[in-house]
Amino acid sequence: MSDRIEKLKAFLNDTPNDCFLNHALALEYIKLGDDTEAKLLFEKNIGTDVNYVATYYHLGKLLERIGEQEEAIKIYEQGMAVAKKVGDNHSYNELQGAYEDLVY
Question: What's the CATH number for 3-103?
Fold first, then answer.
């Protein structure tokens, strides 16, 4: 296991619901090809803080990659709604682009 993963896990021992750290750990698992563990962490983030916008894009892309297009569409739609609610136009545009690429 990579040194980065070990460091992130150590930080998470102190703050297990830190969305930034969970997100970073999920991205490390994606680099290793462990989509299952990454998906669990992204889903944990949404359960912990529905307004953590960054998770929606990466979870949607992961779902697309593993063939779960319908779930990816739902995640993009949820993410767009959250991004709009919190006023994050950049994330909204990224999510909209991913959504449109998948749907159209």
Answer: 1.25.40.10
Torsion, CA 73, CA 96, CA 32, CA 50, rounded to 10: -70
- What the block records as the tokens of 83 is 């991004």
pTM of the model: 0.93
Structural domain boundaries in the chain: 3-103
Give how far Cα 17 sits from Cα of 9, 43, 44, 50, Å: 12, 12, 8, 12
Q: What is the pLDDT of residues 14-43, one digit of tens each?
A: 999 999 999 999 999 999 999 999 999 999
Within the chain, where are the H helices?
3-14, 19-32, 35-48, 54-65, 69-86, 89-103
